[in-house]
Design goal:
heterodimer, A: mainly alpha, 14 helices, globular, B: two-stranded antiparallel sheet
Chain lengths: 300, 331
Amino acid sequence: MSTLTTADRPVGVGAAKPVRRPLLRGERGRLASVGLHGLLTVAAFVAAFPVAWILYISLGSGKDDYLHPGRILSRMTLSNYGFVVNHTGFGTWMLNSLIVGLGTMAVGVLISASAGYAVSRMRFPGHRPLMYTFLLTQMFPVSVLMVPLYKIMASLGLLDTYQGLILVYCSTAVPYSAWLLKGYFDTIPVEIDEAGRIDGLSPFGTFWRLIVPLAKPGLSVAAFYTFLTAWGEVAFASHFMLSADKYTLSVGLQTYISQYNSQWNYMAASAVLIAIPAGVVFYLVQKHLVAGLTAGGTKG
Amino acid sequence: MTVAVQGRARKERRDREPRAGLIARLRRSYDQHWYAWVMCTPVVVVLAVLVGYPLVQGVILTFTNANSLNVGRTIGVNHIPDSYTWVGFQNYVDLLTGPDNQLVPHFVWTIVWTVVCVVLTVGTGLGLAVLMNRKMRGRAVYRMLLILPWAVPTFVTVFSWRLLLSDGGAVDGLLGALHLPQPSWLSDPLAMKVAAILVNTWVGFPFMMLSFLGGLQSIPSELYEAAEMDGATPWQRFTQVTLPGLRPVSSTVTLLGIIWTFNQFNVIYLLFGSNGTDSVQILVTYAYQLFFGQMPQDYAGSAAVGVICLSLLVVFTGFYRRWMSRNEAAA
């Protein structure tokens, strides 16, 4: 991202010189600087506080510690984590979530990229309705689809399987990803495709060998989005995964509430553990986020 | 790319040539576009099977009295067939005029919820994007922290907010220290609504901020220089250069924001649980309550609420897109 900003913003040369002179474009007075950093610090604090708070609460051993946060400071412990990992189905649920999340990511990105590329590059009959369908599928409330989907899954024998859940998540994540990727492919010059075709590549070859490597920022944002969709989803997971050893984390977490009678300290510890993989995926893609999202936004 | 070129040429040719027969036209179309179609097939199949077909089924369900007692299911080896009957528009009539007349209050709250949330998320996102879009120290750190609400799964963050907002929790502690009233965020009807809106804004602004940030970076700096030469004040530069330059981004993300907020299930459901007071339920969570929150589960009524939601959004999107394109034509 730094490349983008430095390119379009003239920088005051020698800004550090003590000599007083009128401000150049793109420079700020001291007061403006303080104000800017002040506002952003407040915003960043508000944004990060709940996440930090849950991390802090998870270190307290008593189940009412969240009401008396001061107590935690003097006796921090990792015992909640130990309990969650060793005495609950947490490991299994985590594994299930990872399988479903990564599966959705792989399948979702692959099929949305190919559709996005086709819509971006080829004027074929049906590409307009297809784009509109993508938008339309964003609007479906869970409750219309739930019963029929349940029946379809049952009749295909996909209930209580990873594949079933992956497919269901793809149906919600793919339309937006395709939309996003279509926008990103639009920003890649068509000349590259033409060069590839002249060198004898098939349309698939052009897509796979030339465009996919160039579209990495867009693809990683789509990957992030599909992974998060699957990782955090609650409604479908809690009704399509029937046996306890197939629960994903979001479902498993809810069993704490009944099973351990609102033991918030365990909840907090598992919430932190859940946030970690999402955070890792996020960290891997974050430098592409702005570029990836913009393309989708402007060209959508 | 040749494919696209052929596509363009075809249009011109069509004026001169007499129209070929249907089969011939289909074949020619197939020859030209099969690559595109093959690439779209997986998406189309997935959407057709998992969205299109269930949607049709769901709409059909709304004309029946299906509930969890009469829908066919398989228990072990025994298969129990469907036994629900056709009731026509009864579900819709019940929803609109029925004894507990639930739909209208939920509808009003859903609209308020959507408008307030979208205004807040778009406003916050735009404001922070403008602040972030300049050279400064610690930019990367700010950005990491500001995107955090988006990076952490919703049920984790919402759970964290439940701890913060619970009676005697951190938010009340802070308000108490400032000698402000401490409403019970998770049980008082009005406070619940405020809490839901605040949490949803908190969850939703990073996406807006990042999108706007990208949009800002695509506005050529020459425009700002020209505006400055003409003596525009910073505010004028913002309204005359920044806002129009952001229009392609803002129109898309606002529409998405409206759709997502309207259908926002996780925040309300997870913040208040299924036993939360009725008044804070938006249409989507209300439909879910009809579905899972009672016995027998009212599949048909729930699907009917869903169909109403969907049709509202479709109509709205139609108007919105027409309005946007007219604006663009005028600009």
